[in-house]
Structures are given as structure tokens and as C-alpha cells.
Design brief:
By secondary structure, the protein is mainly α. It has eight helices and four strands; from the N terminus they run H-H-E-E-H-H-H-H-E-E-H-H.
């Protein structure tokens, strides 16, 4: 009944909505389940799809080294001097601190990372690359660079610059959410 009312309300827009109409095989009736929303400009969808594709592709390149993409990111943050504690990494990555700690534990067990407690603050544990980690990270970076080049193949350098510039602006806007009064629910 509700779907019939919904369909009646949307009938004047049928020509525009035709590509989005879902056919209900059981009832044999048409209903516009997703007709009200065109996700072709849904930033969240595009971002999720891009992250999934890039992560899958880099995962394939890192698999021979038994390294996951998140572990690579942890190693690179330390290698570049951008972070040296799990807390700093949690602030920089869209991953909870518990997940980062589990991956750090695995990297320590494999001999890629070392932990060192601060004498001035025993609660703080600094992370650094072991010799093996320092040797492996450039090899991993080479694999990820090959992956990025493959994913970006066919895209002109000017298009790449625009793409990354737009992403940078979006991320900058996201950082300003508090300023704009947009807070967590």
C-alpha cells in the first residue's frame, strides 16, 4: 500500500526516474526505491569506492611482504617522522587506537618496529623502525608507488594535480567543521 502511494507521488517524474526504478519481482509492481537519490555525486560513496580500490590494489602489491595497507601506513608515518606513538597515528588515520595497537604489536613481533618507554613519562611509548624495518620500508614504498602509477595511468599530470588539489580542499573543509558549528551527533 505504501509503495503504491509512493509510486503515485513520483509518477509525474517517471521519465527522469526511469533509470532508477527497481522492479519488484514478487509483486510484479514497480517501485522507486532509490529514485529519490542520485548517488553519482555522493562524496562518501566515491571516497569509499576509491579507498577500497586503492587499498585492494596496494594490498596485492604488499602481500608478498606479508604487510597490510594499514601496517604500511604505520611504517611510513614512522619512517617519515610524522608520528612515533600509536596515539599520534590514531589522530592521523581513520582507524581506532585499538586497531593501531594490534597492528603495531604484529609489526613489533615481526621485528619491524621497536618500542621504547619514555623515562620522563612511563605511559608514553615511542615507536621506531628496527634495522630490518628501515631496510624494508623503501622496498614497500617502491611497490606502493608502482601501484599508484598503475591506478593513475591514463590520467594526465594536469588532471592529477587538479584531482589532488580538490581532495586537499575537501580535507581542509572537513577540518573546519568545528569552526562552522558542525559537531558530532
Amino acid at each position: 500500500m505504501a509503495s503504491e502511494i509512493w509510486a503515485a507521488e513520483l509518477e509525474p517524474y517517471a521519465a527522469e526516474l526511469e533509470p532508477y526504478i527497481v522492479y519488484d519481482q514478487v509483486e510484479g509492481a514497480q517501485r522507486a526505491a532509490h529514485a529519490y537519490y542520485d548517488d553519482s555525486e555522493d562524496l562518501g560513496r566515491w571516497a569509499a569506492d576509491l579507498v577500497a580500490a586503492a587499498s585492494r590494489a596496494s594490498g596485492l602489491k604488499l602481500a608478498p611482504f606479508d604487510i597490510l595497507p594499514i601496517q604500511y601506513r604505520i611504517l611510513m608515518l614512522i619512517y617519515r617522522g610524522q608520528a612515533d606513538t600509536a596515539t599520534e597515528m590514531a589522530d592521523m588515520m581513520p582507524v581506532d587506537a585499538g586497531a593501531i595497537s594490534r597492528h603495531v604489536n604484529k609489526l613489533v613481533e615481526r621485528g619491524l618496529l621497536r618500542r621504547q618507554r619514555l623515562r620522563t613519562d612511563r605511559r608514553t611509548v615511542r615507536l621506531s623502525l628496527s634495522e630490518y624495518g628501515q631496510t624494508l620500508v623503501p622496498q614497500l614504498a617502491e611497490q606502493v608507488e608502482q601501484n599508484n602509477n598503475w591506478l593513475l595511468s591514463g590520467i594526465a599530470s594536469g588532471e592529477r594535480r587538479v584531482f589532488f588539489s580538490v581532495i586537499d580542499k575537501i580535507l581542509s573543509n572537513a577540518e573546519k567543521m568545528d569552526e562552522w558549528g558542525i559537531t558530532e551527533a
